[in-house]
Specification:
Blueprint (H helix, E strand, L loop, with lengths): L10 E12 L16 E12 L4 E5 L3 E7 L5 E5 L4 E8 L13
Parallel strand pairs: 1-2, 2-3, 2-4, 3-5, 4-6
């Protein structure tokens, strides 16, 4: 599996397959629930696991998500259009907030 850094505010596009985003116990995915701080995706399936830094994702057109935040990390998923499906949501200590869906 190839890995590379994903810059917030840029779009991670995967037309087919699964996108997996993961960090260690104290790190996060994205930095804030804003367009500039989110990790933006256009994909069919996204698996995301973050530490206490939480995860901040924005999906362009609907996707199937599995998300996991450890050690009190927040879970924020924004969906711009289409159907957003979230399975396997887990948040420990505090957190577990889900964002909103623009459509669907």
């Amino acid at each position: 599996m190839a890995t590379s850094p994903q810059t917030t505010g840029k779009v991670l596009t995967a037309a087919t397959g699964t996108v997996t985003l993961a960090t260690g116990d104290t790190a996060g995915i994205g930095t804030a629930q804003t367009g500039a701080g989110n990790v933006n995706t256009t994909a069919g399936t996204i698996n995301a696991s973050a530490g206490s830094g939480g995860l901040f994702l924005e999906e362009a057109d609907g996707a199937s998500f599995t998300v996991n935040a450890l050690l009190g990390g927040a879970v924020n998923v924004l969906n711009d259009a289409g159907t957003l499906t979230i399975a396997g949501l887990r948040a420990r200590a505090r957190g577990g907030d889900l964002g909103e869906s623009g459509a669907g």
